């Protein structure tokens, strides 16, 4: 095969009369190598024209490429900002690891999410959101939707809330609904904000024994003692105390001192009344239908 044939493939169909039935294809598409070729520029001082300083670490980069890839960098490197006329641009309070991954993505449009742990992916998600790289942000969000588990769901949920990722937030809530008891026992639950705890346990679809929810919030209060009063309000509003057994009320809830004793006594009184009504009903039914021997 000649050099011309190797670089330009032509497909021709010939009928018996010698006429071509298909038009000759003259399109060249070698974009499969473009990503790797451009990736060579990443971090190469010989080809760079700007230095990005991230937490004191200097990273060689290419202004035109970054500006072409994201409007965020276009304004930073070519806009009216002070940094645009300098050879170095200092980016403060930025995660170096995550920023390097972001740069790699901007240069190559490729990233293997399977190579990173959940906490690393959340860092990358955060910086993608910060620099408005929404394709990367959404790809990571979709990855988490597929890989949610009891250990990471609360952390992912909190992050999704922070970045207003509605679809990922809903996926986390649905997963938590299906694994409520397990989620309540995780370390991630203890790291949630009071607003996030409320959003989780207030859902009708979040089904777990009330005593389990109480114990989880009790543990949360131990991790966030300054938020005790806010947690008490959550318990008052969303916990169905009447569904907790008298034994658990006396052995677990009462000693915690999260809820006032008069509230618990009122619940116990109502439980007694309900039991008494049931007993009376059963007695009346027995009297109407006496057992014959």
From TrEMBL:
<dbReference type="Pfam" id="PF07707">
    <property type="entry name" value="BACK"/>
</dbReference>
<protein>
    <submittedName>
        <fullName>BTB domain-containing protein</fullName>
    </submittedName>
</protein>
<dbReference type="GO" id="GO:0005737">
    <property type="term" value="C:cytoplasm"/>
</dbReference>
<dbReference type="GO" id="GO:0048512">
    <property type="term" value="P:circadian behavior"/>
</dbReference>
<dbReference type="InterPro" id="IPR000210">
    <property type="entry name" value="BTB/POZ_dom"/>
</dbReference>
<feature type="compositionally biased region" description="Polar residues">
    <location>
        <begin position="1"/>
        <end position="10"/>
    </location>
</feature>
<dbReference type="InterPro" id="IPR052407">
    <property type="entry name" value="BTB_POZ_domain_cont_9"/>
</dbReference>
<feature type="region of interest" description="Disordered">
    <location>
        <begin position="1"/>
        <end position="28"/>
    </location>
</feature>
<dbReference type="InterPro" id="IPR011705">
    <property type="entry name" value="BACK"/>
</dbReference>
<dbReference type="InterPro" id="IPR011333">
    <property type="entry name" value="SKP1/BTB/POZ_sf"/>
</dbReference>
<feature type="domain" description="BTB">
    <location>
        <begin position="48"/>
        <end position="115"/>
    </location>
</feature>
<dbReference type="GO" id="GO:0008344">
    <property type="term" value="P:adult locomotory behavior"/>
</dbReference>
<dbReference type="GO" id="GO:0050804">
    <property type="term" value="P:modulation of chemical synaptic transmission"/>
</dbReference>
<dbReference type="Pfam" id="PF00651">
    <property type="entry name" value="BTB"/>
</dbReference>
<feature type="compositionally biased region" description="Polar residues">
    <location>
        <begin position="18"/>
        <end position="28"/>
    </location>
</feature>
